[in-house]
Amino acid sequence: MIVIGGSASMDLAKELATVLDCTFIPATTTAFPDGECYTRLEVEELNDDVILVQNTFPDSKIIETFLLQDAIKKLGAKSLTLVIPYFGYARQDRVFKNGEPVSANIMCKHLDLCCDRVITIDLHKESTLDSFTCAHKDLKAAPVIAEYFKTKGIDMVLSPDIGAAGRAKIVGDCMGLPYDHLCKTRISGTEVKIQPATADVKGKSVLIVDDMISTGGTIIAATAALKEAGAVKVSVACTHGVFINNALERFNGSPIDSVVCCNTLNNAVSRISVAELVAGAVKDALAGKW
Q1: CB atoms within 10 A of CB 99
Q2: Are 165 and 208 within 8 A, CB to CB?
Q3: 78, 152, 184, 204: which is the annotated catalytic residue?
Q4: Angle ∠(181,189,166) on CA atoms, nearest 5
Q5: Rounded distance between C-alpha atoms, residue 136 and residue 111, angstroms
Q6: 82 forms bridges with which residues in the sheet?
Q7: What 3-state DSSP class applies to 155?
Q8: pLDDT value at position 251?
Q9: Sheet holding 156-159, edge to edge
Q10: pLDDT band, residue 195 (cuts 50/70/90)
Q11: What is the DSSP string of 56-111?
Q12: Most Cβ neighbours (<10 Å): which of 14, 64, 238, 259?
C-alpha cells in the first residue's frame, strides 16, 4: 500500500501513511511560468494499491488532482483510492437559478475517470456521490469530534440549525450528553432572535457542532445569544474550517471561548485528526467490505 500526498493535503496524507504503516510519497507540485500546474511523482513505478489524498479546493487543486490521478495510473498502480478530505464545489449540488451548472456532479464525473473508489468526509449532501460510477463512501467526523471533547467539560451539544441536528445527536450520543438545535425567530425586518429549540443553557458549557464554517457570522451570533441566555462557556467545532474573510481573527474578539476543526483543511485550529477514520475506511475498501 502506498499513500500519496497532494499539495493541498500533505500533512493528513503523511499521518495516514503512519497510521497505515505504509510508504508515503509526496507529490512535487509547482507552476509553469504561465501559471499552469506542474506535478510529478518521483518514483519509477507504483506496483501497489495507491491512496491519493488531495482536497479539490481551491480551484488549482482540482487540476492537480486530475494530473496526479493520471500519473498514478500510468505508473502502474494496482488500484487508486482517491481520498478527498474537503470536496470543493460540493455545496453547488443543484440548480438554484436557471442557467447554472450542477458543479458538484460535474466534479464527480471528471474525478471518476481515473480512480477505483472515492472517500469523502462530511459532504454537504451524501447523495452527491451518486454521480460517481466507482465505489464511494462518505465518512462522518462526528465520532472523532465527540472523542476530542469527551474530557473538555461539555454539558450539552447544539447544532446551529435543525438541518444539522443529526450531527449534534451523534456527537451528543457519543458523549452521553443531551443535544438540541438552535432556532431563528424573526422579530422584525432587522432583528432575529436565536435560541435553543427546547434546551435550557443557563449555567451550562455548550458545544456547537457544524460541518463547515466559512465566514463564522452565524456561529458568532449564535454564541452571543447563548451567552445572553446564561451559557457559561461556548465551544465551537466543525469538520471543515474554511474560514474565509479573516474569520479566525473575528473569533478572537467574539464571545466564543474556543474554536477547533478537523484536519481536512490545514489552519491554525485544525486539531482533530481524521487519519484513523480514513485508515479504517481504506482497510475495509481494500478488504472488499464496500
Answers
A1: 5
A2: no
A3: 184
A4: 15
A5: 12
A6: 52, 118
A7: coil
A8: 93
A9: 192-196, 179-186, 156-159, 205-213, 233-241, 258-262, 270-272
A10: confident
A11: --SHHHHHHHHHHHHHHHHTT-SEEEEEESS-TTTT--S-SSTT---HHHHHHHHH
A12: 238
Confidence of residue 183 (pLDDT cuts 50, 70, 90): confident
Is there a catalytic annotation at residue 184? yes
Q: What is the mean pLDDT of the chain?
A: 94
Question: Percent of the chain at pLDDT above 70?
Answer: 97
Q: Residue type for 282, please?
A: V
CA dist., res. 276 & res. 263, Å (int): 12
Tens of pLDDT, residue by residue over 163-172, are 889 999 999 9
Look at strands 49-53 and 79-84 and give their pairing: parallel
Q: Concatenate the DSSP letters of all residues of 17-65 into one string.
A: HHHHT-EEEE-EEEE-TTS-EEEE---S---SEEEEE----SHHHHHHH
pLDDT at 188: 58
Whether 210 and 197 have beta carbons less than 8 Å apart is answered as no
